[in-house]
Amino acid sequence: MSGLQHVKSCLSNQKKWSHLKAFISLHDPTKLRVDAERDCDYHAPHHMYPYWRLIAIKDNICTKDLLTTTASRILKDFKSPYDATVVEQLRDAGFIVAGKTNMDEFGMGSHSVHSFFGSVKQEGLNGEELSAGGSSGGSAVAVKTGQCFAALGTDTGGSVRLPAAYTGVVGFKPSYGLLSRWGVIAYANSFDTVGIFGADVDETYSIFETLDRHDPKDPTSLPPSTRTRIRSLVACRGYQPRWRIGIPLEYNIAELDPIVRSTWLKSLRLLQSKGHTLHPVSLPTTRHALSAYYILAPAEASSNLAKYDGVRFGTRADGPDGTPESVLFAKTRGQGFGVEVKRRILLGAFSLSADSIDNYFIQAQKIRRLVQREFDNVFSLPNPLLEESDSFAEVDVEKGVDVLICPTAPTLPPPLSSLRDQSPLDAYMNDVFTVPASLAGLPAVSVPVQHIKEDSSPTLGEHVGIQVIGQYGHDTLVMNVARDLEDAVCEDADRTGFEVGPL
């Protein structure tokens, strides 16, 4: 497909699927067509695709030519004077930004319904409006419906992987610190990670390779020396045609949807048929990961969002702001933030208060450390950030597993109509399988696996997201296993006669 044909196809799909509200803002179609007609002999370094590919950017990642609103009333008019580093890297690699995608306000949500610009949605097989997942639901839907080639999102506790699972695309959260966060509007600094959506594993990984660079402007970006050390450790292990697959027993929870459980088992059988071996592992502390996350992330958010007061940053409310009994910016913050953002700010402020910090925030940090240690104990590969990684040659790789395989979400995407009566706690439960990897900063990818309906009807079954989690820094290994799973799913579909891929 030529550059112009690709752009025309995406523009046509943007018009066709506009009612899904995947985008908050779009570039001028005429400009995109002109860009696509430029010299197609140009090829950017470190990239396998010609420069005319359209990519969508989540609306909490700064772009200088489009507004960056974070789907919030308080930033609805904000235009950044610069591009985020990841956007600069994509432009240098030849990508064209298609637009900014819809999301949960400031990245806080599991269904992309907490947006000042309206809820993101997807259409089910029977035409019912379903959740697109959150908070990067717009990016996932844009890729799913062919409105762009690929998309960037952010993953704090599962905000890339959960939408990928719900929409049936690939969603990858790299190891924390590999991709630059400079120019990304923060939700929780110690968790926020730029993630990637693609139609398949290879396309997703190619974009990761483009962005996997040290950024001196980002204090959380891994320095070149550490990156070299990680590469040397991976090279010591070398490529293995057979991997040891870990099955976390604690993830087989009672709330797991039967379809999700059967698809998980199917994925394990498919990987076993490729020669990989299956090994049960125990991660008992991860059952506390969700509780710890919803103390730590809101605490960081309450600090990060304090600056949006209409004085330093953000749109100021009309009329007098504040009374003798309230602070100056009470009206601005009360009107500017949505209900979910205000809920998390209050939760975070409470856990950081002098009376509660020891019982909540400090305890949650201890759980986070235990979760990280538990992951290190089950992986055969050492954590390259720990000193004991220096003795890599002495590690017995047969005592641990290479990756973990588990569901991405405990349920299929719920109807949007059912979310009106859903409690916040029920919404938070959607992150139960994604949060542990976020606490430890591990690489994780959600791969869509087709579930064929039990009645053997000719109608396609649901896509279920299956998650591959690996040791810190071993992102390439995670994507290699994901590719094996993707290939096995395609081969299985050929045998059964069903199609696999986006609807």
TrEMBL record:
Top-level division of the source organism's lineage: Eukaryota
Class of the enzyme per the UniProt entry, highest EC level: ligase
Recorded GO CC terms: glutamyl-tRNA(Gln) amidotransferase complex; mitochondrion
Catalytic activity from the UniProt record: L-glutamyl-tRNA(Gln) + L-glutamine + ATP + H2O = L-glutaminyl-tRNA(Gln) + L-glutamate + ADP + phosphate + H(+)
Domain Amidase: 55-478
InterPro entries the UniProt entry points to: Amidase (IPR000120), Amidase_dom (IPR023631), AS_sf (IPR036928), GatA (IPR004412)
GO biological process: glutaminyl-tRNAGln biosynthesis via transamidation; mitochondrial translation
Any one GO molecular-function label of the UniProt entry: transferase activity
Annotated catalytic residues: 58, 135, 159
Location in the cell: Mitochondrion
Entry keyword DNA-binding: no
Keyword set, alphabetical order: ATP-binding, Ligase, Mitochondrion, Nucleotide-binding, Protein biosynthesis, Transferase
E.C. no: 6.3.5.7
Record's keyword annotation contains Mitochondrion: yes
Predominant localisation class: mitochondrion
Role this protein plays: Allows the formation of correctly charged Gln-tRNA(Gln) through the transamidation of misacylated Glu-tRNA(Gln) in the mitochondria. The reaction takes place in the presence of glutamine and ATP through an activated gamma-phospho-Glu-tRNA(Gln).
Protein name: Glutamyl-tRNA(Gln) amidotransferase subunit A, mitochondrial
Originating organism: Zopfia rhizophila CBS 207.26
